[in-house]
Amino acid sequence: MREIEKISFCFVLVLVIINLNITELRAQAKPKNLPNYDLKVLHFGFTLGYNQFTSMLKVKDPIPDPEKVLGMNIESQHGFQVGVISDFKAFEYLRLRLLPTITFGDRKFNYSVIDSRGINKIESTNIEAIYLEAPLEFKIQSKRWNNFRPYIIVGGKFAYDLASLKKKKISQEDQLLRVDNIDWMYTTGVGFDFYLEYFKFGIELKSSFSFNNMIIPEAHKPYSNIIDKYRTQIFYINFTFE
Q: What CATH number does domain 2-241 carry, 2.160.10.10, 2.40.160.20, 3.40.190.150, 2.60.40.10?
């Protein structure tokens, strides 16, 4: 259901962008806003937006402790992020961006378990995520069309989970499962810049994917031992102001 909601939201957002673009094309006779903006080698701004933490999960086959845990899934959760933008012009259609960002999110692990009475039930545990991110991205731009300019995003980032500092106050044995606090990710997406009278406004749709397996293996914990691989995936909708 959440995937349908996300697809519907993206569809509506794309329709809004198309409508803004059509309006912009109808106003071709209108003078350009910020006509010298793209001549700047370096500029700054900030970004804020919505995110959804999902995952690429692989459960062990066969399940190691079927008398305790029958199966599991990870439910996507919503969050938000804020960051600053440092944008460097490499070439006419290529810019390099550094975007220090703090991302707030959550991960919900759902387990199908057998209780002491032999009844199958669902147990859930939430693992908070507060990512301090250092993304480095290439912004590949099209030609500017009056006050509109689309672009493609490719890049990578390092992320450190600040929520792990809170978990250090809890003993490892009391934690049902543990995930690594360091994540290396690659990012792809698209964006749309709108040149307004006093600043440039942008909308970005992008996703980041982990390179590494985030689960810390602990064979004596059934909630952890069932997981073979777990990689973070984060979908972002960003609004930029530059």
A: 2.40.160.20
